[in-house]
Design goal:
The structure is a homotrimer of 203-residue chains. Chain A is mainly α and 203 residues long. Helix content of chain A is 85%, strand content 0%. The longest helix of chain A is centred in the C-terminal third of the chain and has 35 residues, at 168-202. The first copy, chain A, is globular and about 55 Å long. Chains in contact: A-B, A-C, B-C. Chains A, B, C: InterPro entries: PhoU-like_sf, Put_Phosphate_transp_reg, UPF0111_domain.
Chain lengths: 203, 203, 203
């Protein structure tokens, strides 16, 4: 049983590591769009890796009776961590599908928000696995603030897009990427919300 | 424990009041687009207020063992009530971001459906807190009918849009707002569905 | 109680039958767009029929204490089966709303993936109701592979669309239908995921 505990916490840590690494890779990628095919391919690999971790956790959950934290919480954390990586992978693949070659300052801003959010998520997950529940809260607050920043970036980026871009197809591409990036900050917030309810119920 | 009960029911009532007030404000706002910035700002305030209520309920749920109705039901009601207000706030903010200045008859129709739906929701929530479960059903039926009306307005509005509007950027703006408004009627139906399952299990 | 068991399993079988029939009708419909109004109307009837089955299951769930499989699993299966039919019905209604008259090879490919997925779903549901749990797994694997094919069709179809179609309104229409069809393959995968967790917990 103690081994089982390890599997859940170890896999959650691995997911958090992968998400930080993938988001940093994403942030570098969007500042250098010279090879979007390689960029999209690498992001897809990160996403598959995260799918594997998700599968491991679900499989273990289905055969384990006693879990280190409530199974609904493990499930919710896993799903929202997976959503974060799916979100940035979907954006990376749009760079390829839409043949985007030019850098975009708003995408850079979103990527920066996401890098900072995923670092906060990683810190919070490691505190969870060390059972330092109360110390998690400040990271949740930081993630919520970053999600608000994501909302602000969306408002400004979409307003600017509609004010300046007259080519509708260009507008469609940018709008979708901005919205997907903002939604990814919402998935980060879902992680924070689950963590907050774990803290509340256990302290 | 009795005080705890009061907190859940009192906060659900406050959420319902806020949603009715916000939807009526929204309906007035879309018929007078002279100051979309002030309009979007006020809608954002309603949304923040509703977030506060959601936070109160989640916090209480996490520290309360005995709840007046099942915790999953309180959670589902809170989430879908919050979704309703998020939905109309997102529309209001698009009026600002997209610099929409002209009235739109379909948006007026959607707003009217939503005003009627939120009044039905409010009546149903007050019957729930008074434990008059059986009387809730007729309001659920009314909300379902209004959601069907929302579907019809979407079908007609989108058909008309694609038949008449030749400017693709104008089309993108209207299409998104219509779809978000229709989705908000779906969130109202989620409230009704949760209420119906509460009735069925308790009568 | 045994009768109750029958109601859940019988209704799930009826849902699976309807979904296969509706998806085959959809596949035929998208290859002959001579009467999109009749096509959309018939798909709407299938969707209403499926809503009835969903309602039956929810009503029974709310008044039954002992269910043949866990109630959360019945709920999850019902919801994702319903999502599959909602997904293709939404596409059919876009053919009508957008006055689409020309066949599209990618829509044909998606329809073919969905026909094969729903046949796999039907086989899996009938194995579930016969309690042949272990035999379900191969159908889940097939559904997952078909979902990957759906991802590939989306990537190619969207890339081709943005490379070739210069009319933004035409692009908006096709893009939405492709995305909705791909999402419907995701709903099929949700069915498979629920079935897999039922197998894991019961074998």
């Amino acid at each position: 049983m103690f081994k089982k505990k390890d599997i859940f916490f170890k896999t959650l840590e691995e997911m958090a590591d992968t998400i930080v690494e993938a988001t940093e890779y994403f942030a570098k990628g969007v500042s250098d769009l010279s090879d979007v095919t390689a960029f999209a391919k690498r992001m897809k690999e990160y996403e598959s890796q995260c799918d594997q971790y998700t599968h491991t956790i679900l499989k273990e959950l289905n055969k384990t009776f006693i879990t280190p934290i409530e199974r609904e919480d493990i499930m919710a954390l896993t799903t929202s961590l997976d959503d974060v990586l799916d979100g940035i992978e979907a954006c990376a693949s749009r760079f390829e599908m839409y043949h985007i070659r030019e850098k975009d300052e708003y995408i850079t801003l979103f990527a920066d928000v996401l890098v900072r959010s995923t670092h906060q998520i990683k810190s919070a997950i490691y505190l969870l696995t060390q059972k330092k529940l109360l110390a998690i809260r400040e990271h949740c607050i930081a993630i919520n603030e970053l999600e608000n920043q994501g909302d602000d970036v969306l408002r400004v980026s979409i307003t600017t897009l509609f004010a300046n871009v007259k080519d509708p197809i260009e507008l469609i591409k940018r709008k979708e990427i901005y919205e997907r990036l903002e939604q990814t900050t919402d998935y980060c917030e879902d992680v924070a919300n689950t963590l907050e309810s774990i803290i509340m119920r256990n302290s």
